[in-house]
UniProtKB/TrEMBL annotation:
UniProt main location, coarse: cytoplasm
One Gene Ontology biological process: proteasome-mediated ubiquitin-dependent protein catabolic process
PANTHER family the UniProt entry points to: METALLOPROTEASE TLDD (PTHR32194), PROTEASOME SUBUNIT BETA TYPE-3 (PTHR32194:SF10)
Alphabetical keyword list: Cytoplasm, Nucleus, Proteasome
Repeat recorded as keyword: no
A Gene Ontology cellular-component term: nucleus
Gene (name only): LOC112288283
Name of the featured protein: Proteasome subunit beta
Quaternary structure note: Component of the proteasome complex.
Length: 204
């Protein structure tokens, strides 16, 4: 088994009309043994920027701490929040500088620009960026996530429809992956508010 699938994970970010949603499962496991059902994989950088980290749980926490530190330094120096594209480049550079002993994380970055347009992207272990205009997925459930998202996604969804689509895609996908699931969490971000909801999933 690959070290990136040691703890199991499922992450999606999806674009709507002037909004985005990011969702993850909540299971922390060691291979097929479940340890916790409230593990956090999605982190807020600022009100309009979130990052989801799939992969090895210890590297997820280390990456989050380092990225938080770098963003706070940026805020002190520039006196403003980081744009999503800038933050994606920071994540990519951070992963690439450790390429010979990488962090076993595949991040998903989702944010809103100042004009309200959503931005999503994902990278691999060494920071190669992949941009998308509809959705990005990551984690051990990514194969089934692609299928569910492709069949359910429609462009220009409002916040409520976007929540419904991303929730159904997540719940349908983790049922097909035995090392992710056990509930989920969804953040829907619009220019004015952040809606966070917890999903109940199968616990078997």
């Amino acid at each position: 088994m690959s070290i990136t699938s040691y703890n199991g994970s499922a992450l999606i970010a999806m674009v709507g009309k002037d909004c985005f949603a990011i969702a993850s499962d909540r299971r922390l496991g060691v291979n097929f043994q479940t340890i916790a059902c409230d593990f956090q994989r999605i982190f807020k950088i600022h009100d309009h920027l979130y990052i989801g980290l799939s992969g090895l749980a210890t590297d997820v926490q280390t990456m989050h701490q380092r990225l938080n530190f770098r963003h706070k330094l940026y805020q002190l120096r520039e006196e403003r929040n980081m744009r999503p594209e800038t933050f994606a480049s920071l994540v990519s550079a951070m992963l690439y500088e450790k390429r010979f002993g990488p962090y076993f994380c595949e991040p998903i970055i989702a944010g809103l620009n100042d004009d309200g347009t959503p931005f999503i992207c994902t990278t691999d272990l060494i920071g190669a960026k992949q941009l998308a205009k509809d959705f990005v997925v990551s984690g051990t459930a990514s194969e089934s996530l692609y299928g569910a998202c492709e069949s359910m996604y429609k462009p220009d969804l409002g916040p409520d429809e976007l929540f419904e689509v991303i929730s159904q895609a997540l719940l349908a996908s983790v049922d097909r992956d035995c090392i992710s699931g056990w509930g989920g969490i969804v953040h829907v971000v619009t220019p004015n508010q952040v809606i966070t909801k917890t999903l109940k999933g199968r616990m078997d």
